[in-house]
Amino acid sequence: MEKVKHILRPVIDLQQTGEKIKSLRKFSGFSVHELQDLFGFQYPQAIYAWEKGQSVPTVDNLLVLSRLFGVAIDDIVCYSLVEVLCSCSDHAANCMNKDSKVCEKCKFRKTA
User: Fold this and answer.
1) Three-state DSSP class for 7?
2) What is the C-alpha to C-alpha distance for residues 6 and 100, in angstroms, rounded to an integer?
3) Looking at residues 6-14, what average pLDDT do you find?
4) Tens of pLDDT along 51-99?
5) Ramachandran angles phi, psi of 51, nearest 5°
6) Rounded to the nearest 5°, which phi and psi values hold at 81?
7) For residue 106, what pLDDT is reported?
8) What pTM value is reported for the model?
9) Residue 85 DSSP code
10) What are the strands of the beta sheet with 6-12, ordered from one edge?
11) What are residue 81's DSSP bridge partners?
């Protein structure tokens, strides 16, 4: 019988990430329209959506933002850890027999 283990999975906080983008943009002295031009967007709606927490920039756009703002991507993206069940098909062999705090197969942190 396979034992079930709870793990912590990171989940992006759209609202906090949007607030962070807006804060870093203002601190760096960029306007929304300047970012629009730098990204080559026809309209500024994507940037407004990021800042309102309606969407998250793609990975390549996060790289651009991190360079523009002079910070690491981890300083832009805000997240929380949510407790979930491990999705490993052979969870018992990968997690339960180890003293590790991280599942060797799925790489998520175990809670207990």
Assistant:
1) strand
2) 14
3) 84
4) 999 999 999 999 999 999 999 999 999 998 887 776 565 544 455 445 6
5) -70, -25
6) -105, 125
7) 64
8) 0.72
9) E
10) 79-85, 6-12, 109-110
11) 10
